[in-house]
Structures are given as structure tokens and as C-alpha cells.
Amino acid sequence: MIALTLIIAALGMLTALWIASPLARSALEPMQRLAAFGVMAFVALAALGAYLAGGSPGLPGQPYSVTEARLAAMDPEELSPEEQEERLRAIVRREPANAEALAYLGRFLAFDGRHLEAIAMLERSLRVNENARVLTDLGQALVELNEGNVTPEAERAFAAAHARDETLPEPAFFLGVAAYEAGDRETALEYWSGIIRRLPPADPFREVISVRAADLLSRPAGGPQMLGDGEMPEDETPEQMVSRMVAGLEAGLEAYPDDVARWMVLARVRAVMENPAGARAAIAEARTRSGDDDGTGAILDALERAIQVEESEE
Amino acid sequence: MIAELGRFLIALALVASFAQMALSWVGASAGRDAFARAGRAATLAALASSAAAFALLIAAFIQSDFSIAYVAGHSHVDKPLFYKVTAAWGGHEGSMLLWCGVLALFGYGLARIGPMDVNLRTRAVSIQGLLQTLFFAFLAFASNPFDRLDPAPLQGLDLNPILQDPALAFHPPLLYIGYVGLSAAFAIAAAGLIQKTPGRALARALRPWALGAWTSLTAGISLGAWWAYYELGWGGWWFWDPVENASFMPWLLGAALIHSSIATEKRGAFPGWTIFLALLAYVLSILGAFLVRSGVITSVHAFALDPERGVWILGMLGVSAVAGLGLFAARAGSLGEGEGFEPTSREAFIGANNLLLAATAGVVLVGTIYPLFIELAGGAPVSVGPPYFDAAATPLLMVLLLLVPLAPFLPWANGGAKPALKQLRAVFLLIPVAATGIAFILFGAPVMAVIAGALGAWALCGAVMDVANHWRTAKSRALRLALSGRTLAHAGLGFIAIGAAADASRPADVNRVMAPGEAIEIAGRTLTLRDVRRADGPNFLADRATLDVAGGGTIAPERRYYWAAGQHTREVGLGSSLAGDLYLSIGEARPREDGSAAYEVRAAFHPLVWMLGLGALMIVIGGLLAVASQILIRRGRQEGVA
Amino acid sequence: MIKARKRLWIVLASAGVLVCAAVLAGFALRDAMTFFHSPAMVAENPPPPGQRVRVGGLVVDGSVARPATGGADFTVTDTLADIRITYAGSLPDLFREGQGIVAEGAFDETGLFIASRVLAKHDEAYMPPEVAAALERARVEGAGLPAAGHDAYREGYGRSGS
After folding, report:
1. Which domains does chain A have, with CATH numbers?
2. Which chains contact C through at least 3 pairs of Cβ atoms less than 8 Å apart?
3. CATH number for the segment(s) B510-610
4. Residues of chain A with pLDDT under 50
5. Does the distance separating the beta carbons of B395 and C18 come in below 8 Å?
6. CATH topology classification for B1-163
7. Residue B34 is nearest to which of A4, A26, A49, comparing CB atoms?
8. I want to staple B24 with a disulfide (CB 3.0 to 4.6 A). Which of A257, B126, B146, B207 is the partner?
């Protein structure tokens, strides 16, 4: 502030002197000297006035380095989301090979919904250091970017993550989803039951994944629209159609009695047809067929719960 | 501190400009040398302050000081240093500072090397001081680049990505030296009217300034057109957009001015017209600024809209126009009566050139502001697009091109076409002209393109004949420079005409969605998409497609996402050869049904497009040679006086 | 006398050229002028099919279809009415849902607008004046501005405010 005042004063005076000096030097009479002085005073004062009309002399400049230092000195807990982002970006700028910071920034951006940027950051982090966690985040960012579809790119990321660390729940779950979307329920079930088996009993992901898996696997093949109105041939009532489907399922199960997913579908359809005993029987059959596997068991438990809820609603 | 100091320097430049105007006025009116010298001192003060303010603005950009609103709106920490610097003139406020700085530069130039008549020079410095005061006041009070933000944002919004380009870094400075340089011609013309200087002397005094400014304007417009060609990704180089027209109108009048001032200086023909042009050219420059910066007209690349600024600029436009043209109306008689000439004289052809250029400028002006008038009159919104300009302006320019090669062979004053025709050996000229025309017809060009191509060849041959015939008679170095300048510029016009004609007859663009491995064909060339890879930069993410051209070579267009600005851009891939440019851009990914990635690809072939660049370059070099010749002549005159 | 005659031919020649230019400009203007129609204007009084016009409005959220063969279809609105537009070219990079755009082209018999040019501005906070005016009229006439369009319009400056 003091330095600014001094510089402004010096500049103003010097310029005023410079402009008025030809007048002053050639001045012979007092009036001419007065004119020279007048010009000088006018230049200096008018410049000051024009400056003060909109100036804020008390406001210090804020080069980015100052902002950066301020953010670095603050407790991360107190930062607003924007400040956190800037802080992370500053670290990444300083240490372009800091895989951890890159991953943090990537996660932040993903959380903020800026998936394109998030993906770029996570990929940068992975180039420095391949890490199962970061690979998982990359895969999820790709999934979110593509509105929930597990694209081949995302699948590759999840597969790499899964190969590095089998105990991570997300890669296994999404790989299962990818297999499911491709129509391969057996592989999907394998992934899902496998990860549930590996997770500790108290892990919340166990519950989440088994509920989701139970829902997906028990859907009739060909998608839910098979039960909808649109696809129905005109000469068939819904009941006829469902029973045709059940017949098909039962025939299929005779051919492939070890297909657990098919048993699950049967259980669900029977539940819809208000045949809870049949549904339970189907689930019990599935349990036996799966060799009392812990993971599959959890999924079947979830299915059983879901069906019972349906029952109690009706 | 940088910001506040910069703000003070702008205030200081404003006051110095005012002092320059007032002191020089007194100096010229009262014949007081001390005041004239004080006015000259003020020109340096204004120049130095605005240059220092500009340096501080650049420093603020380099430091990324986001407490300055203009920096926060046009920069980002992660932007490359080069574009941090160029962003200083990439937005409205910064470019206004540049505009003002150039005004001050020309004020200083006028004070140092202005008209040789001392009083005329002092008066011109005063008028320039008036123009400076207007613009510095606008800068200081309505467009200050050092306005502050408190609290400062954490991060800047980044410079509009399409401006992050080398050609556009240099386009504005050149354009402004052109636009604003016309202010010097304006100042000299107005000063001459006040001083009642004869028209011939006035034309001599303003000619070098008009030449220099117009040359720079040509360079600026050409860079802009080149940028539009490869950066906007539409493949055009001229769209008749209001923003382009805003620079084209002063260019047309400037071109008229540099020709008419020759006739006025050498023969005393149409002095009033020449001075009128000098005044009008700068007024149209300000009108251009108004159109570009006020948002009154729909344009795809205007500055951000701000009606308040529009009112300011309209005020400045009014002051300049009323002062200049009012002065002209009151004092035109003092310029002296024009000398007569015959229809086949060189003056007549220069007059025709002026008439056509001015008519073209008028046609462009009507098309540009017609929608504005309709709207002011309460009519339905309309727009006037390229078809209008193609139909109305192009024929005029073609007639102009037809006359270009003839004028240098015509004698002054009494004229006479016979000796000229003999020298011209017109028959030889017609052979390449016909050949070019036939070539265009064979390529299936539209009629207008055939004519334009033939006319281009005509202008080229005329330029060759011009230099061949006149080189021996040009005795001094200055005359040779002038002759080279003239022939280069006229030949440049020829190249531009051929290039434009070729581009107008190019094959249809191909727009296709392609997956890697697929191929498209354009203009007989097969392009295969090899792959699309990531190619991120410091402040953008990019997908780079690589396309193999059958027979060798690859072209790699990019699609970028500038994340700070939240904007997608295309980086065009060019495969240039003597035949023309293969022009490729890629758009967004379009996943196929089966999940495989495919990309929108736009391919075009622009034949002979290099001729446009070459032509523009030749005009600019020609202009520079003409300026050099003027400097030599003036030096000779000064030595003669001393 | 001779001087007067010399003047005369100059004046006549100049007048001739200027009249030619004026006539040229007049005809060109009549042929090349394109009127802007807001969706509400089109709904009320549709221009005849094939006539070259400009239309504009905000791109409706979720209305953009990008067929795998290239080109795009989308709907613009001024909150009072909608226009469905189809465009065979490559959309400008700044085209996005919720943004104000202007399209030039003609309607076909079914009321579909076939655009030959789509304009979006370089500056993403830009709103073409015609579109802005049409929206303003719509607002005055009582229709609410769709939230999505408004937000998208502000997106560009959202971060500088904080």
C-alpha cells in the first residue's frame, strides 16, 4: 500500500514534469510560468482522480502462488470442495508423478460428476503406479460416463483390478454385471458368489451385492418385458403366458438341473403366481445344487427375503 | 499492486492524451512552439504509460492473478504460458487496451515523423489526441482491464479455447495496427481541413500512413481468414459474417484511399474525395468496433454482449463522424478544385477503382446493418447471409479485377489507350487467361468461378507485363520499390482470385461415421481410419484420430475438450500438397449398435488453397515495399529541403 | 466549357456504377434475406415448405438423437411451441442440450425442419439475440423458462461467482 502510493505519486509527478517542462523552460513571464505549473498540476491531479474513480488501492494482488500457499497451509478438513480441488491440482502440478494425489483428484472429479476429467486423471495415476483400487475407480468412472453400461474399456479396467486384488468387491460385481449383460448368467453368478464368499461377514457390500445379484439373476431370461403387456400374443392371457414360461423353465431344468440361476427364476415366477411353497422348494433345490456354497447361499437368502416381501404385500 | 498500478497508468495515459490534444491545439492555433513541444512530450507519456500498463497486464496473466476480473475471465493456471501472454489481448478489455496503445503509438509517430509542415503536424497530433482521449476514457471508465474481484475466485475460467491458437495470437495486434493506423490518416486529413492545407499536400502527407495501416490490416484479416479456415473446422475461410465485414469495409476504403491518394498527390485529381475517404475509413473502423463489441448484430464470433459498451462506442463513433465529416462539409472548398482528366487516363481508372471499391463497401455495409435497421423499424428479425454478398459484392470486385492490369499502362491526364494497348500486347495476355478459364470449366466449376479464375490469370499476367515493361524506366530505387510493390500486390490479387475460384468449385464434403479400419474417399484419395488415441494437453483432453492416406502420409485431426472452459473444439488435420489441402476433422464418438466405437469424420478437399495464402502474403509484401518507397522518397525530399 | 464536360462524364459514369451496385444489392437482398421464426410464430403461421428461413430456440433436454450413420435430430423450443429439426452435417462443438441455437434451412411438407446450417456461438454463455428475444416474448406471454435451459446458460459463469 505504501509502496503503491509512492510509486503512483512518483509516476504522476514525473509525467507531469515531463509534459510541462517544455513550457517551463521557455517561460519568460510569470503568467507563462503559471501556465506551466497549471499544466503540471492538472496532469498529476487528473490522473490521480481518474485512477481513484474506480481504483481499490487497498486491495492486494493475488497471484496464484499466494492462493496455492494459503490452501496448502490450511487444514484439509476446513476446505470447501472447490478449495480441495485446487489444492489437489496444485499438488499434481508440482508432482506430476504423485500417483496418490492423481488418484485422489480423479476420485474427487468423479464424485463431482466430471467423468471425462476423472478418467484422464485416474489413467495418469495408473501410468505411474498400477493399483487395484484406482483401476476400480477408473472402471466405475467409465461406467458412469456411459450411463451405467459396462463398456469393454471398463471391463478391462475391472478385470485388471480383479486380477491384482480378488478381495475388492466392486470389480467382481461389475465383471459379473458385464457377464450378465452379455447373457452369461453362470459366469455372473460365479463372480458374485465368489466375491461374497471372500468378503468378511460384516462387510456391507455382502448385503448390497447379494440383493442386486438375487434380483438380476431371478429375472426371466429375455428381460422383464416378457411378462409385460406389449409382447403378449393376442390370443393368450397373461396367465397362459406365465404358465407356458414355467413349463419352459421346468423343461430346461430337467435338461440342466445344475443351473442355479434357472432355479432362481423359477422361484421368482412361482412366487408371482402365488405359489410360495413351490418358490421355497425351488430355492432349496438351488441351494443343494450349488453345493451349499456360502456365496450363493447369501444370494439365495436375499432372493428368499425378496420373494417373502412380495408375498406379504399381496 | 500490479493491478492498481496498471489502473493508474491507464488513468495517466488518458490524462496525457487529453494534455496532448489541448497543448497541441494551443500550439497550432497560437503558433506557440513551447506548447507544441509540450504536446509532443505528452504523446510519449501516453505511449509509455499505455505500454507499461500492457506489460503489467501481461505480468498479471503470467502470475495468474485472479483478483483481476479480466484475468479471471480469460485465463487458467494450467493454460500454457504462451496463451497466458496472448490472452492479454484475447478479450474485450485487453484488446481495447491494445487498441488504445496502438492509438498512442500512432500519436507518438505523428509527433515524430508526421507531416513535414510543422503546424499541420501539431494539429494532427492534437486530433489524434482527441481520438486517444475518447478511447482511453472508454477504457478507463467502461472497459477497464484492471477491474478487481473481491473476493478473488480460486481459479480462472480459461481463455476461449478456439482463441488458444498461434494465428489468433497475432491476428489482433496486426488488425488493430491496421484499424487504428487509419486514425493517423483521419487525424492528418482533419488537421489539414482545419489548417486549410491544399488537397495535394494533404494527400502526400497521409499517403504513407494509409499505406502502412492498410498493409497491416491486410495481414490481420488474412491471418483471421486462415485461422477461420483451420480452426473453426467448417473449412471456409470467409463467411461474410458481420465481424469479418467489420474489418473488410475499412479495408476496402483503405484500398481506395491508397490509390486515390496517388492520383491526388501526383496529378491533383479528386482531392476532396481522397480526404473524404481518409475520414470515412477510420469512421468505418469504429463502426466495425461497434458492430463487433456491442452485440447488436448476430455473429458467430463477436465479443460478449454488452449494451452499455455499445452506447459508449456509439458515442465515440458519433463524435468522430460528426467532427470529421462536419469539418469536411465546412472546409472541403479549401482543398482546391480537382484537375480534370480524360476517360482513358490513369486517373480515370483509379477513379473507377475507387468507385467500385466504395460501392462494394457500401453493398457490404447495407448487408451488414440491414437486419439492424429492419429490427429498429419494428420488423420481423431477418438475417442477410452469404448469398447476398456473393450476388452483390462479387460482381463488383470482378469488374475491378478486370480493370486492374490495364491501369498501369495508361498515361496520366490526357490518357490515350493506343500506346497502352501496344505495350500491353493484349493478345499474349489472353492465352493464359483462356487456358485458366478452360481448365476451370473442365473441372466442372460454376460459372462465377470460371470467370473469377480467368480474371485471376488476367491480373497475374498483367502484373508480369507491368513489371517487364516498366522496370527499365524506373530509374531510382524508390521507383523500383514502388513498382515491385504494385506488381506484387496486383499479382497477389490474381492468386487470391484463382484460389477463391478453385475453392468455390471444390468437390462436396464427405460427412461419415467411421470405425477404425474403415475408409472414405474424397477427391480421388482414399483415407483409412487407423485408430483414435488419447492425446491430452496441459489444459485439455484430446482424442487424436490417425488416418492413413493411400499412397503415403497420415493426417491426424483431434477433438479436444478444454475442461476448465467446459468446451469442445476441433483441431483440423491438414494434408497439404500443391494440388490443395485434404481437410479432416473428427467429431464426437458415436457408438454403434454392437458397442464398437465409431467417430464422426468430416472430410473435404480444398484445391489450390495455398494460392489464397500466397496472394495475401504478396499483397502484404507489396504494401511494405510501397511503404519503403515512400520513406525513401520522403528522405530524398528532406535532403532536398536541407 | 471543356471542364464542365469533363465533370459531366465523371458524374455520369459514377452515377451509372452506383445505380448498378444499388440495383444489384436490391435484388440480392430480396432473394437472400432470411427471416427468423420463433417456434411460437411457426406454430401460429407456418412458413410455406421450401422457403428458406431461420429458426431458433433452446435445444430441448433429451431431444437430441444422433443416429449411427451421422447427422442429428433435435427439438428446439421457446417454451410456447417446439420445432423438430434434422441436420445432416456435423453439429458445431458448442451445440448442447439447453443451449440457444439458430438453424437455417426450410420446412418440409410434414413440418420437419431440414437445416442446412446450425449455428452455436463460440462463447458458451452466448444466446443468439433472436433466440433471446423470442424467449423474452414467451416469458411475457406467461410461459416459464425451462429450468434446464436457464441453468445451462449460466453454467459458463457459475464458477466465477463463488
Report:
1. 224-313 (1.25.40)
2. B
3. 2.60.98
4. 223-232, 309-314
5. no
6. Four Helix Bundle (Hemerythrin (Met), subunit A) (1.20.120)
7. A26
8. B126
Partner-chain contact B154 A67, CB within 8 Å? yes
| DSSP-assigned states of every residue in chain C | -HHHHHHHHHHHHHHHHHHHHHHHHHHHHHHHEEEEE-HHHHHHSPPPTT--EEEEEEEPTT--B--TTS-EEEEEE-SS-EEEEEE-SPPPTT--TT-EEEEEEEE-TTS-EEEEEEE--SSTT---HHHHHHHHHHHHTTPPPPHHHHHHHHHHHHHHH-
Contact of B521 with B624, CB cutoff 8 Å: no
Q: How far is B47 from chain C (nearest CA, A)?
A: 32
B479-532 tens-digit pLDDT: 999 999 999 999 999 999 999 999 988 888 888 888 999 999 998 899 999 999
Portions of chain B given CATH number 1.20.120: 1-163
Residues of B in contact with C2 (CB under 8 A): 340
Q: Does A43 touch chain B (CB under 8 A)?
A: yes
Q: How confident is the model at residue B424 (pLDDT cuts 50, 70, 90)?
A: low
Q: Does B479 touch chain C (CB under 8 A)?
A: no
The CA distance from A166 to A179, in Å, is 17
Partner-chain contact B295 C129, CB within 8 Å: yes
Per-window interface: A 115-154 vs B, CB < 8 A: 116-117, 120, 123, 151-152
A132-145 vs A152-164: helix crossing angle, rounded to 10: 160
Q: Which residue has the cell 493454460?
A: B79
Q: Do C33 and B388 touch (CB under 8 A)?
A: yes
**CB atoms B140 and A18 under 8 Å:** no
From B94's Cα to the closest Cα of chain A, the distance in A is 17
Average pLDDT rounded to a whole number, residues B535-564: 91
Per-residue pLDDT averaged across C57-77, rounded?
Answer: 85
Residue whose cell numbers read 410461459: C143
Q: How far is B542 from chain C (nearest CA, A)?
A: 13
Residue type, position A95, single letter: E
Determine the distance in angstroms separating the CA of B21 from the nearest CA of chain C, rounded to an integer. 38
Cell output for B552: 503415403
DSSP E strands, B136-213? none
- A135's grid cell: 483401476
pLDDT of residue A312: 46
Supply the ipTM of this predicted assembly: 0.88
Query: Which run of H or E residues covers position B603?
Result: strand B599-607
